[in-house]
Amino acid sequence: MPSEAFNAVADWLRQNLRSSESDLVAEREAMAQYAAAYRPLFGVADEPAPVGQPGSYVMTPTACRDDVVVLHIHGGGFRSGNAGLLRLVSAQLAADTRARIVLPEYRLAPENPFPAAIDDCMEMFDYAATLAPRIVVAGHSAGANLALAVLLRTVGDERAAGGVLFSGVYDLRPERFERGSWVERASSELVLTHEGGLSMHHDYLAGRSATDPLVSPLLADLTGLPPLFLQAAGKERLLDDSLMLATAAAQAGVHVELEIWPDMFHDWTAAATMPEATEALSRAASFIDRVASGRIGKPALSDGVTLQHRPPR
């Protein structure tokens, strides 16, 4: 049964986000105000990153390990959001993994369309490599797309140790907004609107092709990617993206762990005060620890996906 905190967040989302496309300036301002409300978590220090776009952070836990670092990329449809939004989530990951978390700020569309955001994240990948020899690249929603783009750009680079992808969008072709879970989950989706999906496509691409594999990673050759950990919500419009990515990656020989949380909404892990988010993040932290320690298991299912959890309703 969903927690009281979950129900409260879901009610707020129904009242505030299930509407037509919002004003982008107002949306960015609302997210900035939310990020400004962050209060440091005991045992985790945060400070501005010395490189990258203004607004990037480094989260450092007490007794920090030095074998792995996490590059943690925020979402927002490529058009809004900021690194500060993930400070609480990142503080929890830092505490659970004892690893530094690098939060990159990146330039937003439509002012800075593809590939500006990827270039900014790549700069922070190189910075993260100065902090530890192994990098796990994580991201939420559009940030998961960017995380996968970073991993595709670094195939064969031993520094790229794994990927943690939350509720990602991996196909930006216009026809995807007319079929599959994008349509079938419209009534249960609490976050993503149809208008918002079209604006994401239009503003991020700015006329470029959606078939570029760094735009739509489902079309990429995934061979050589490091182990991947995916989480998706059963009620979100982007569910098919995670299902199809897991299958494609497994067919390319990539170790994939996929979790479908039936009752959750899009990117619920970003609502870090909910127990459902805390549990999901702890499972992601376990994957990060296994990657850093070289304890990734063998395939457990015949469908090609290494491990598929379906947490209880």
Explain what you see:
This protein has 313 residues and is α/β, with parallel strands linked by helices. The chain has a single domain (4-15, 44-293), classed as Alpha/Beta hydrolase fold, catalytic domain (Rossmann fold). The protein contains nine helices and nine strands. It has a nine-stranded mixed β-sheet with strand order 1-2-4-3-5-6-7-8-9, with helices on both faces. Strand 8 (256-261), helix 9 (275-293) and strand 9 form a beta-alpha-beta unit. Keywords: Hydrolase. This is Monoterpene epsilon-lactone hydrolase. GO terms for molecular function: triacylglycerol lipase activity. Its EC number is 3.1.1.83.
Short description:
This protein is of the alpha/beta class and 313 residues long. It has nine helices and nine strands.
Q: Characterize the overall form.
A: globular
Going by helix content, strand content and strand pairing, the class is alpha/beta
The gyration radius over C-alpha positions equals: 18 Å
> Please, what is the average pLDDT?
91
Organism: Nocardia cerradoensis
Pfam family, one: Abhydrolase_3
Domain Alpha/beta hydrolase fold-3: 70-269
Family: Belongs to the 'GDXG' lipolytic enzyme family.
